[in-house]
């Protein structure tokens, strides 16, 4: 069964593997298959589910709401996010203005078929809206009981500190950050993680398997396997391109196979277990297009990787690891229309 961890300095426990439906529900995967994946997650003990209003332009929330209908609400932890454009993309259909936040939480609750979400997250930092306006809107949503806790995604260390200061002033439970993090993408380690620890936040990390690269299925010099994310024209191919274009990186990843075998893990399990070794990580988000993937990935829960093996992983990957903290800022558009 999946183990639980506290989220930030709160009393909320979430499953250290969280099921996410980015790039799958409402787009890549048919609804019946999506429901099968959610059921598989529930069967292995996952109770935490992550989505966002922008995924498949709100369709992913609808699919998740249908898949969870009939489950005991108190036994679930449901997360969603706000920032990116939704609907027809009008001038107020994006960002972190009070108008967009209030309208977005109401739409998310309707689609998810619930009275509240456990965690409501700012999907990026909004450079065009005063932070005070954003945090006050979040505070009002918490006080209305529409969200129990608030968090952010891909905020820089400075942004997290500023948000935490306002949250403390407004007495709002600000407890999480959701960044990209994997063996290959460690840009949060030097600045974001220390700032989060100071502020009482922990990480819910996405793409722990580097969009599938760390499964080892992408071989240097070979075309991406048919049906993989590397061939998906709906969005997956663009996200993974930076890894697939680096043949040396792909060769280094193949060097992880003996390590996974020694630990009796698949390469995907090794990658997920690796991010969970970071004490500031509360959960790794896993996605799936087939129920078997959920069942397989669940075996990464509770795995302890010895320090000497962690060091060997570093040796194998070498200088192919991205570490520059400045890369976090590049994920947030300077303007909402970017």
Task: Give structural notes.
The chain is α/β, with parallel strands linked by helices. It has one domain (4-215, 268-304, 321-329): TIM Barrel. It has helices spanning 31-43, 59-68, 98-112, 131-143, 157-170, 192-199, 236-244, 247-254, 257-262, 267-276, 291-297, 307-317, 326-329, and strands spanning 4-6, 13-15, 17-20, 48-50, 77-82, 117-122, 147-152, 174-177, 202-205, 281-286. The chain has an 8-stranded parallel beta barrel, surrounded by 5 helices. Strand 5 (77-82), helix 3 (98-112) and strand 6 (117-122) form a beta-alpha-beta unit. This is Aldo/keto reductase family protein.
Number of helices: 13
State the order of secondary-structure elements, H for helix, E for strand.
EEEHEHEHEHEHEHEHHHHEHHH
Task: Show unreliable segments.
Answer: none
**CATH class membership:** Alpha Beta
Rg estimate, integer Å:
19 Å
Q: How widely separated are the two ends?
A: 42 Å
> Order of strands side by side in the largest beta sheet?
3-4-5-6-7-8-9-10
The named CATH superfamily: NADP-dependent oxidoreductase domain
Total domain count: 1
User: How many beta-strand runs?
Assistant: 10
Q: Specify the CATH architecture.
A: Alpha-Beta Barrel
What is the residue-mean pLDDT, rounded to a whole number? 93
Q: Could you please say which CATH topology applies here?
A: TIM Barrel
- Given helix and strand content, the structural type is alpha/beta
